[in-house]
């Protein structure tokens, strides 16, 4: 089975990764006061999750939206730039 990622699903993963990662990063920094090694591990995992979300923003920007309808004024699809005479 092939995983079909629509732009809407990627958006959900992006923002979940960013906000969840930042939350876990903050938790790791708070835990670091009592358990330094565990705090660093938790903070690094949260930072990596947030970084994954940032990278996925770039992936999402290169995806084409299959639901995009052609723009009759531009002579192409909604993703193509408008031609100027």
Give a quick set of tags describing it:
85 residues; mainly alpha; 60% helix; elongated
Please characterize this protein's 3D structure.
The chain is mainly α. The protein has a domain at 17-61. Helix content is 60%, strand content 0%. The chain has helices spanning 7-31, 36-61. The protein is elongated and about 65 Å long. It starts with 6 loop residues before the first helix and ends in a 24-residue tail after the last helix. The model has no long low-confidence stretch (mean pLDDT 86).
Fold topology:
Blueprint (H helix, E strand, L loop, with lengths): L6 H25 L4 H26 L24
Helix pairs in contact: 1-2
Order of helices and strands: HH
Q: In percent, how much strand structure appears in the residues?
A: under 5%
Give the overall shape. Answer: elongated
Low-pLDDT stretches: none
Integer average pLDDT? 86
The strand count comes to: 0
Q: What kind of sheet is the major sheet?
A: none
The SS-based structural class is mainly alpha
Rg (C-alpha, Å): 20 Å
The level of helicity is 55-70%
Separation of the first and last Cα atoms: 46 Å
How many helices? The count is 2
Transmembrane segments: 12-31, 37-59
Keywords: Membrane, Transmembrane, Transmembrane helix
Region (Disordered): 64-85
Describe what is shown at a glance.
With 85 residues, the protein is an all-alpha fold. The protein has a domain at 17-61. It contains two helices and no strands.
């Amino acid at each position: 089975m092939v995983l079909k990622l629509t732009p809407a699903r990627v958006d959900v993963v992006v923002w979940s990764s960013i906000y969840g990662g930042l939350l876990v990063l903050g938790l790791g920094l708070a835990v670091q006061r009592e358990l330094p090694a565990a705090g660093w591990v938790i903070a690094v995992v949260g930072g990596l999750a947030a970084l994954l979300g940032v990278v996925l923003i770039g992936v999402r920007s290169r995806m084409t939206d299959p639901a995009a309808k052609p723009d009759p004024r531009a002579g192409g699809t909604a993703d193509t730039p408008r031609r100027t005479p």
